[in-house]
Amino acid sequence: MRRAPERLVEKPFDLLIIGGGIYGATLAWMASSAGLTTALIEKGDFGEATSANTQKIIHGGMRYLQSLDLSRVMESVRERKRMLQLAPHLIDPLRCIMPIFGYGIKGKEVLTAGLSFYNLISHSRNDGMPASKAIPPCRVLSKADTLQLLPDLQTQGLRGSAEWHDAICMNTERMVLGFIRSAYNSGAGIANYVLAEKMERKNTHYVSVTCRDLIRNTNFDVVAQKVANCCGPWIRDLIKPAEAEKQLHDLHFVAGVNVITRAIFSHRVAVGLRDPADPASRLYFVVPWRGHSLLGTEWFAYKGNPGEFKIKEEHCAELLKGFNKAYPPANLGLHDVQHALGGLVPGSLTRSSTGPQLKPWNHFRLLDHSEFGQRRVVSVIGVKYTTAAGVARRVLGFLFPERYIENYVTATGFSTADDKPERLPNLQTRWDSVFGESQVRRIASTYGPFAEDVLKSASQCVSISAGKDNGIDLVRGEVAYVIENEMALTLDDIVRRRTDRGTDGLPPEDELVRVADYAASFLGWTQIYKLKEIEDLKKHYLQFN
Ligand SMILES: Cc1cc2nc3c(=O)[nH]c(=O)nc-3n(C[C@H](O)[C@H](O)[C@H](O)COP(=O)(O)OP(=O)(O)OC[C@H]3O[C@@H](n4cnc5c(N)ncnc54)[C@H](O)[C@@H]3O)c2cc1C
Questions:
Q1: 70 assigned to some structural domain
Q2: Which among 101, 131, 188, 477 could disulfide-bond with 38, CB atoms 3.0 to 4.6 Å apart, if both were Cys?
Q3: Within a domain: residue 132?
Q4: Which domain holds residue 103?
């Protein structure tokens, strides 16, 4: 996948997508798979904004039973299955439990009935799925079984726990990239570091979007029959103020912060917890994450410019304080935090007895900007990573009602073949003797269908330092591969969104410098530029005082 913005001006497209988060990426994949000529531009790197900063849960929608939102439950069950089918190397079922204290609406009896109902309505969740990706039925665990999993849990009032399975995406950034690569393979014109500045109606059939190539510092226009604004928190930037006032007057942003901490529980199970003394208190969710815990979420109103949102020490401290109250044995301090992830979700002000409250939206919104003509320019505002592909299908149905859009479950950027039992052993037979068993396993789980290509590329990369040949170098091979084939242009792209080296914290200095040296040699960076890239990357990691 080569970056070639000049391809975007060659011809008018059926559909131009602005924004390369999960919503733009899934839309580009589906549109190009359906045979539409498609373009996608992203002002930064693919998936670098909200979509990189989720709690990594691919929801099965159990929680929506509480509000009896059955269509959302069914949508989540369907989309969780699609994600598991598409990217088995990145997504796995995740066992979750939530302790039950007391009686009433959140008591054991009501939950038992709710879980049975969920099992019933999601009965087809495993049809056609391999055993390794099967989602077991929900059930209620006894108090003794709960304490076996969480031995330090408060026993007073404990009546057991609800057990269900969601799924976890081990690399949300590469998941976005998988959709982008699939769209590219189906002929889409795609470029990162291209900012859409302005949209104009060109004539009755076309819309013209003025773009700025942020790498070459040039401007150009992309012309398309239809345009989808998938800019996430930047959704207002391309809409005329009067239109934004009319259609988005109730849009506010809610910021969410999650932290990666030392492992809080010893079992590989996600746990939902709230202060047992206060059933109305905030629910915290602890997800097992690469030998650590991913704890969330601290939510608060955000009024600033989306590009200026920054996680601060006080957000993390507030999160830990609330969680320590809900689960005192954790006793977490800032020194336990190794990385923090945060982003913005859409919300509205609602009235409550204690005054106005900001609540995240429950459903995505699709806005038709009729000043460009009916069904010509739309804005798509998503609420969950999980359901992006389902929303993409609905958006295409709206923009191209005359066309049947298939409910796709395969894509070339991923591979269902990856789940075939012979895939990893085949890679291991060929490459273990060259790179070692654990490295081949890591490459397989990071790159999925492209693992063989990465290993081949690496087998031709020899590390030379101080004029000495040090043999084959996997790191150099990975850096070469992602620059050549995945449009990685910065150290940040390489470390945080391609090679999986900086996903759960800042890599050690020597590793960082090594990756930067290789990137510099492939991309022609000067020494000063390389040091600036290292400094820019470090800004994405929190340093507490
Ligand atoms: C803390 C937190 C935890 C979450 N956890 C989960 C979870 O566990 N599971 C789940 O399903 N969902 C979760 N979500 C929700 C999910 O992350 C979002 O719904 C989803 O990522 C939104 O994707 P998006 O593509 O709309 O936005 P983004 O990922 O923000 O993408 C928008 C893109 O548009 C680009 N862009 C903006 N303006 C322009 C322009 N003018 N020109 C070109 N490009 C532009 C931006 O650079 C950006 O990359 C969570 C959200 C938060 C904040």
A1: no
A2: 188
A3: yes
A4: 79-167
